[in-house]
Design brief:
heterodimer, A: mainly alpha, B: alpha/beta, Rossmann fold, 6-stranded mixed beta sheet, 17 helices
Chain lengths: 319, 498
C-alpha cells in the first residue's frame, strides 16, 4: 500500500500536481469563466516557453550532477547581443545563430572551469552570473537596446485573441523538448549524462571522458539558454540587460518540481516541462484570482518545498 | 587474574547484521593501567567489537561491565560520558578550528551559554600537558599540524572527560617511525595514570613492544588471550590464521602463457611506494596485504585511475599512448572496484545501463543506443550468472550485494576484458555467489585470460591463485608461487615481521 503510493508519486507526481492546480483554479467563481478556455491555455503555454527551454538545458545539467546559476544573466546577455545585431541590420536566421553561439560560449567557459579546474558548479556559475550580467549592461551601455522591426518580434505573440494558432515559440519548445527527451534516453551521450550524475567515480572507472563530457553538457545547455534569450527578446521586442534577473531559480524550480534530484542521475524532460507548466499555471491563476504578486511568490516557494519533500520520500524508497 | 569490579569486562558478546554473524561470542577483559592488544585479520570482528564498546552499535546479547557496574552505552556520546573514548584510524578534527576549539568540541566550558575562555584554555592546556605536549599552541588551526600532532590533539580531546578506557584503532598506520615512538611514550604516560588502553594494530611487533596482554579474534570469536611476553609471534599468527581451508576453490587446469602486463617499479601518491610485477596469460595472480598496504592503490595505478609518481605500466600489445581508464578498457583491461556503492555501480540506474556502461558506443550506430540490443545483452548475463532480478531494467540498487557484484563483474566479461583487475571480488556477498565467482575466475584463466585478485581473505588467495604477491606499507614485498606460501608466512610478510 505504502509502496504503491510512493510508486505513484515517483511516476506521476508532477503530472498529478499539474492536474491539481488546474482543477483548483477552475473551481472559484472569479476564474471559472475564463480559466479553462483554450485562449487562456494559449497564454499559459506562451508564458511557459522561456522557462521551459531553459529547463531543457538545466535538466541536462542537473541530471549530470551540476547546477547553473548564470542562466538569467545568459538570457539577458544574448537578448542584448540579438538586439544589437538586429540594429546592425542582420536578418533573423544569423541573429538566432549568433545568440545561440554566444550563450554556448558562456556555457563552454562554465564547463571548462568546472571540469578543467575541478571547481564546484555553484561557485563558478555564481561568478558567471555576475560576469554575464555586467557584460550585457556594458555592451548595451546600461540601457535597453531598441530596434525598428524584426520578424523575431512575431514569435511569441498572443495578440490575436480569436486566433487558434499557437505562436512559433510554443512549437519550438515542444519540438526541442521531444528531441532532448529522445537524446537523453536513447543516445550514448544521454546515458553518459545520467552515468556522470549518478556516480562520477563509476563513470570515470568505466572510461567515460568525464572532463570532455561536462564541458559538452554546459555548452549544449548554453545553446538552449541562448534560445530562451531569443524568445525573451521576441517577447520584449527590445534587448534589455536587466531582464530575467533570478530566472535561473524559476528554471531550477521547474526541473526539481519535475522530479529531478539535485544530487544527480535522476530527472526527465517530461517532468521538467510539467514543472514549468505548473509554475506558469500558478502565476496565471493567481493573477486571475487578483492575488498580489507577493502572494504568488509565497505559493511558488511552498510548491518547491513540497516537491523536494516528495523527492525525499521517493529517495527513501531506494535507501 | 583480574579482580572483578576493576576495569572493563565483556562476556559473550554477540552481534549479527542480517544473516552475517559478525560477533559470535567475544569475551574480553582489561584492567586499569593495562595496555591490551586486540589482534585479528581483516574481518575478524575487531571493528564491530569496538563499535559495540563505543556505543555505535548495540550488542544482540552478552554483558559488559565497567568498574563493576553494568555498562550499556546508548550512543558514542553516552559511551564517552561513561568513560570509554575512542580514537579512530581516520582522525576526526575540524581542521579549520583552533587546537583549543577542537579539544573542547562538544564539551565547552560555558556560563549562561557564553564560552568561558579562561576555564576553556586551562582545560585544553592541562589535557595537552597530561600527554607531555604542552608546547602545542592552543590558538593555531588544527590543520597546520602534522598527522602525529593532530593525533595528540585528538587524544587530548578524549582525555578531557577523564576516560577509564581509551580505544585506539590502528593509531600508527599513518605515522613515521619516530612519531610512532613518541606516541608510545604518550600511551605509556596514560598507562601510568591508570587508563586502560585497548590497542588495535596489524603490526604485531608494535604490539609486542607496547602491550601487556593480547586477545586474538578470529571469525567473530575470541580464540586466544594471554600475556604478551609469554607469546611468540608465530603463536599469535597461528591463532589469527589457523582455520581450515574449505574446498570452495575449484582448480581449473590452465597453462601459463606469455607476459601480458609488465608493471615496473610504480609508485603513486599517497601510499604506493614501489611495486613491480609481471603477469601472464592464463595466470591468476593474488595480491595479499593488510588494509592500507597499497593493494588497491596498485590496481588503480595499473588502471590509470591514479597518476603514476614513478615507474611504468606496459600492457603488451597495447601501444604507448597516454594512459587513461578509457584507453585501458580499449587495451582489454577491466577493473572491478572494491567499493560497489561509492565507485563500482550507479545505484539509481538500471542493471542494463550498469552492465553496458563501458561499451555503449558499440550498442548502436552514430551515438544512438539500440535499447533492445542493450536489454538482450544484459538479459544474457542475468541468465548466465543466475542474477536474481525482475528484469534488466530494474534499478541495480534494489538487488542484493551478491547480485550487484555479479553485474559488476559481468561488465568486464561483456566488454570483454582479457586482463581482469578484481579488488576484493567477494567482499560482503553470500557464500553461493562467492563459489560462483571463484568458478568464474577459474574458467577465465582456463580460457587464457589473466586475473589479478586483491583479497584480505587468505584462504581465498591460497585456494585460487597461481602466484601470490604480498604488500607491506606501500611496497610489493614478495612474489612467490602459491606452493611457497602458507597463511602464517603471508601474515609474517604483510605485518613486516619477516
Amino acid at each position: 500500500m505504502k509502496s504503491t503510493l510512493k510508486n505513484l508519486l515517483a511516476k506521476g507526481g508532477p503530472f498529478i500536481g499539474l492536474i491539481l492546480v488546474i482543477v483548483l483554479f477552475s473551481l472559484p467563481t472569479e476564474t471559472r469563466e475564463f480559466f479553462l478556455t483554450y485562449h487562456n491555455f494559449k497564454i499559459i503555454f506562451t508564458q511557459t516557453v522561456i522557462v521551459a527551454i531553459g529547463a531543457l538545458g538545466m535538466t541536462m545539467i542537473i541530471v549530470s550532477g551540476g547546477i547553473d546559476l548564470s542562466v538569467g544573466s545568459s538570457i539577458a546577455f544574448t537578448s542584448v547581443v540579438g538586439a544589437l545585431l538586429i540594429q546592425r541590420g542582420w536578418s533573423a536566421a544569423p541573429v538566432v545563430g549568433a545568440m545561440m553561439l554566444s550563450s554556448a560560449l558562456i556555457g563552454l567557459l562554465n564547463g571548462a572551469a568546472i571540469a578543467g579546474l575541478r571547481m564546484t558548479p555553484f561557485i563558478i556559475t555564481l561568478g558567471t552570473l555576475g560576469v554575464a550580467r555586467g557584460s550585457a549592461k556594458w555592451m548595451a551601455e546600461n540601457q535597453t537596446v531598441n530596434y525598428d522591426a524584426s520578424p523575431i518580434n512575431q514569435w511569441m505573440t498572443t495578440a490575436d485573441p480569436a486566433g487558434y494558432a499557437l505562436p512559433p515559440g510554443v512549437w519550438v519548445a515542444i519540438a526541442l523538448a521531444t528531441l532532448t527527451a529522445v537524446v537523453l534516453k536513447n543516445t550514448v551521450f544521454g546515458r553518459h549524462v545520467f552515468a556522470l550524475g549518478s556516480n562520477e567515480a563509476t563513470a570515470r572507472l568505466c572510461g567515460i571522458p568525464t572532463v570532455r563530457l561536462k564541458i559538452m553538457i554546459y555548452a549544449l545547455a548554453g545553446c538552449f539558454f541562448g534560445l530562451a534569450g531569443l524568445f525573451q527578446l521576441s517577447r520584449l521586442r527590445q534587448g534589455d540587460p536587466t531582464v530575467a534577473v533570478g530566472l535561473e531559480l524559476d528554471i531550477i524550480a521547474a526541473v526539481i518540481i519535475g522530479g529531478a534530484s539535485l544530487s544527480g542521475g535522476v530527472g526527465t524532460i517530461l517532468g521538467s516541462m510539467i514543472g514549468a507548466l505548473i509554475m506558469a499555471v500558478l502565476r496565471n491563476g493567481s493573477q486571475q484570482m487578483g492575488w498580489p504578486t507577493y502572494f504568488q511568490e509565497i505559493i511558488i516557494g511552498l510548491v518547491i518545498i513540497v516537491a523536494v519533500f516528495l523527492d525525499r520520500l521517493r529517495q527513501g524508497k531506494q535507501a | 587474574m583480574i579482580a572483578t569490579g576493576a576495569g572493563l569486562r565483556l562476556v559473550d558478546i554477540q552481534k549479527s547484521f542480517g544473516a552475517t554473524r559478525a560477533l559470535r561470542g567475544v569475551s574480553f577483559q582489561i584492567a586499569p593501567g593495562e595496555i591490551h592488544a586486540l589482534i585479528g585479520e581483516n574481518g575478524a570482528g575487531k571493528s564491530t567489537l569496538m563499535k559495540v564498546l563505543s556505543g555505535a552499535h548495540s550488542a544482540d546479547s552478552g554483558t559488559m561491565e565497567l568498574g563493576g557496574r553494568p555498562y550499556v552505552p546508548a550512543d558514542p556520546h553516552d559511551a564517552r560520558l561513561k568513560g570509554v573514548a575512542m580514537i579512530y584510524q581516520e582522525l576526526n578534527l575540524a581542521l579549520h578550528l583552533s587546537v583549543q576549539e577542537n579539544i573542547l568540541l562538544g564539551a565547552e566550558s560555558t556560563s549562561l551559554g557564553w564560552i568561558d575562555r579562561r576555564t576553556s584554555r586551562e582545560r585544553a592546556r592541562s589535557a595537552l600537558a597530561q600527554l607531555g605536549h604542552a608546547s602545542i599552541a592552543l590558538d593555531r588551526r588544527a590543520g597546520e599540524f602534522s598527522i602525529a600532532e593532530q593525533q595528540v590533539i585528538e587524544i587530548a580531546r578524549a582525555l578531557l572527560i577523564k576516560p577509564q578506557v581509551l580505544i585506539m584503532d590502528e593509531p600508527t598506520s599513518s605515522l613515521t617511525q619516530s612519531d610512532t615512538e613518541k606516541l608510545f611514550a604518550t600511551i605509556l604516560r596514560l598507562k601510568a595514570q591508570g587508563v586502560s588502553i585497548i590497542y588495535i594494530s596489524h603490526f604485531l611487533e608494535e604490539c609486542r613492544q607496547l602491550c601487556d596482554r593480547y586477545t586474538v579474534l578470529k571469525d567473530g570469536e575470541t580464540v586466544g588471550t594471554g600475556q604478551m611476553k609469554a607469546a611468540t609471534l608465530d603463536q599469535i599468527v597461528t591463532l589469527m590464521t589457523g582455520r581450515e581451508v574449505k574446498d570452495l576453490y575449484p582448480r581449473s587446469s590452465h597453462a601459463r602463457g606469455a607476459v601480458v602486463l609488465d608493471v615496473k617499479a610504480v609508485a603513486s601518491e599517497p601510499r604506493l611506494k614501489r611495486a613491480s610485477l609481471q603477469v601472464h596469460a592464463g595466470e591468476i595472480f593474488g595480491l595479499a596485504g593488510l588494509i592500507g598496504a597499497g593493494r588497491t592503490d596498485l590496481l588503480r595505478a595499473i588502471f590509470s585511475l591514479d597518476a603514476l609518481a614513478a615507474g611504468e605500466v606496459c600492457v603488451v600489445g597495447g601501444g604507448d599512448e597516454t594512459a587513461t581508464p578509457r584507453r585501458r578498457w580499449r587495451q582489454g583491461l577491466g577493473f572491478l572496484s572494491e567499493n560497489r556503492k561509492e565507485e563500482g555501480l550507479m545505484l539509481n540506474q538500471s542493471v542494463a545501463d550498469n552492465l553496458t556502461l563501458t561499451k555503449q558506443d558499440s550498442l548502436g550506430r552514430w551515438g544512438w543506443i539500440n535499447g533492445r540490443r542493450q536489454r538482450e545483452v544484459a538479459q544474457r548475463w542475468v541468465d548466465e550468472l543466475r542474477v536474481k532480478c525482475r528484469d534488466a531494467g530494474q534499478l541495480i540498487g534494489d538487488l542484493s550485494g551478491g547480485n550487484q557484484q555479479k553485474i559488476a563483474i559481468a561488465r568486464l566479461l561483456e566488454h570483454p576484458a582479457r586482463i581482469f583487475l578484481l579488488d576484493e571480488p567477494t567482499r560482503g556477498i553470500d557464500v553461493g555467489s562467492k563459489a560462483q565467482i571463484y568458478q568464474l575466475i577459474g574458467e577465465l584463466a582456463a580460457a587464457g585470460k589473466t586475473v589479478i585478485v586483491v583479497s584480505s581473505y587468505l584462504p581465498e588467495l591460497l585456494g585460487l591463485c597461481d602466484t601470490v604477491g604480498v604488500m607491506c606499507r606501500g611496497e610489493l614485498a614478495a612474489i612467490r608461487p602459491r606452493a611457497d606460501w602458507n597463511e602464517a608466512e603471508i601474515m609474517r610478510v604483510a605485518t613486516g615481521s619477516a
